[in-house]
Amino acid sequence: MKLTSSLRQPRFGAAKATAALLLIALTAGCGASGTTDTAAGNTDVAIGGERFSTADEETAKFGANVAPGVFPRTLTHANGQTEIAKKPERVVVLDTGELDAVLSLGITPVGIPSTEGANSIPSYLADAVKDAKSVGTIQELNLEAVAALKPDLIIGSQLRADKLYPQLSQIAPTVFSIRPGFPWKENFRLAASALGEETKAVEVLNAYQDKATALGKDVPGDPKISLLRFLPEKIRLYGNASLIGVILKDAGLSRPENQNIEDLAAEISSENLAEADSDWIFYTSYGTPEATGEKAALEGPIWSKLEAVKAGNVQRVNDDVWFLGLGPTGASIVLDDLRTYLVK
């Protein structure tokens, strides 16, 4: 389907930035390192949380009160309303989804977080942000580093940093989605709305959908696609609410019954690895194969007995793109990968 574009904060001067630094020192719990802890997020919007299932419909309500590209604007988002006086030029992002989003809109952020994956910055985006400064990790933001960059916009989410919103919004106008990844398209449009790039966002999403539709028409038969990811101490099968689940649905590709769920993912044990079987298996790890249990699983007794493995229809993929990308640039690369593997 083709798309069409359709709490007030004061301006932030030097005195405001100084006050923000003082507030951080007093209340952020940063300590000498200037980092926060993983309790900064909101578990209600995590997998299994009471607000997870409504994230897509709630995010779709967010946006600006003016025409595309017009400033000043008041933006409604997950944490209320934020006034953005002029088009932002110094943007800090707090997760990989926001990073993909702003780069997809042609904007390079001045501050970015690192991840605990195999690469600290998603490999497919690393060259584009080689000059960006670190603001800590996704799990432990360094608020002093954020403030030092003097941003004029911060983009993040309640899932990662809800409890830090008061401090962040003292540093610069701050816009939060409910959670990264789900729903990635709505999150992308929210970021575009904060940046005044609504028209560009529509163009990007329509180009993505054209590419997904073309892929679906070219894949022979009706193969069911299984998505398997190894993480430290857990194994996940990804559902329809994940980035790749949405991509497969947009392309009209089928899923095995146990993954055709309106959720981000379902967890299985290593003893139940057979539940990952399907016509095709795409798998990866968040971290090294040794640390996540991937190596042990692939060398164990179950893997070689899976029908997809016996048929040669199994492919290891780039975790940075398939599961950390969470935006249109990553989604487009996933479509390229799927075409490579599924269209003979």
Describe this structure in words.
It is a single chain. With 344 residues, this protein is an alpha/beta fold. The chain folds into 2 domains: 14-196, Rossmann fold, CATH 3.40.50; 214-342, Nitrogenase molybdenum iron protein domain (Rossmann fold), CATH 3.40.50. Helices cover 35% and strands 17% of the residues. The protein is built from 14 helices and 13 strands. A 5-stranded mixed sheet has the order 11-10-9-12-13. Strand 2 (73-77) and strand 3 form a beta hairpin. The radius of gyration is 20 Å and the shape is globular.
- Per the principal axes of the C-alpha atoms, what is the gross shape? globular
- Rg measurement, Å: 20 Å
What's the CATH first level of the largest domain? Alpha Beta
Mean pLDDT score, rounded? Answer: 86
Helix content: 25-40%
The CATH topology of the largest domain is given as Rossmann fold
Number of strands: 13
Tally the helices: what do you get? 14
Task: Please state how the strands of the largest beta sheet are arranged side by side.
Answer: 11-10-9-12-13
Question: Mind summarizing the main beta sheet?
Answer: 5 strands, mixed
